[in-house]
Design a protein that fits this description.
This protein is α/β, with parallel strands linked by helices. The protein has two domains: 1-88, 3-Layer(aba) Sandwich (Rossmann fold), CATH 3.40.50.170; 92-186, Rossmann fold. Helices cover 35% and strands 23% of the residues. Strand 2, helix 2 (39-46) and strand 3 (50-53) form a beta-alpha-beta unit. Helix 1 (13-21) crosses helix 6 (148-172) and helix 6 runs antiparallel to helix 7 (177-184). The relative contact order is 0.16. It binds 5-O-phosphono-beta-D-ribofuranosylamine.
């Protein structure tokens, strides 16, 4: 049985997309949040998935004896230290074409900077924020007259589509072609 630990601090819409994608597959999930009130914990409860509130300072102790294939960050708003990152492989999703617009408010920054193209990046996590090796990027044209809200919606739509598929790829596939085809769909 494959095991994934998902970390989030907020809404958890990516988490829900991942859970829906894997609903009939042999993958066990655990959900972790550093925020007691985060909606991601409620989403986990709705699906009957084990969920834990783990304060940031307790992350190492929580993870040190947990087994998993890798850890998925989905809106986790903290930078994890080396000692934690050494415990497992971590991946993250970021709403820009990295290395552009690292950190917070990436969609808004790309929009306000009048970029013609932006997108989504799935990458391995390193000690430096939004800087680990890129696994997949999917781009999107910012049409003239597009409102910021519309761009945000499209970015999230792409995230919800690609993140589960990248996880599927990392868990079950060695065929790089499956990821190439995935980028071609947007
Ligand atoms: C997403 O836009 C993701 O790219 C970023 O944080 C947001 C999380 O959204 N890292 P949600 O909590 O999955 O709804």
């Amino acid at each position: 049985m494959k095991k994934i630990i998902v970390f989030g601090s907020g809404d958890g819409s990516n988490f829900e997309a991942i859970i829906n994608y894997f609903i009939n597959k042999d993958v066990e999930f655990i959900c972790v949040s550093d925020k007691k009130e985060a909606f991601i914990l409620e989403r986990a409860a709705k699906f009957g998935i084990k969920a834990f509130y783990v304060p940031y300072s307790e992350t190492y102790d929580f993870l040190k004896d947990k087994e998993c294939d890798f850890v998925v960050l989905a809106g986790y708003m903290r930078i994890l230290p080396k000692e934690v990152l050494e415990l497992h492989t971590f991946i993250n999703i970021h709403p820009s074409l990295l290395p552009k617009y690292k950190g917070k408010d990436a969609i808004k920054k790309a929009y306000e900077n009048k970029e013609k193209i932006t997108g989504v990046t799935v990458h391995y996590v390193s000690e430096e924020i939004d800087s680990g090796e890129i696994i997949l990027q999917s781009s999107l044209i910012i049409e003239n007259n597009m409102k910021l809200e519309e761009l945000e919606e499209k970015i999230h739509e792409i995230e919800h589509y690609i993140y589960p598929k990248v996880i599927d790829y990392l868990l079950f596939t060695t065929d790089i072609g499956s990821l190439v085809n995935l980028t071609a769909e947007f």
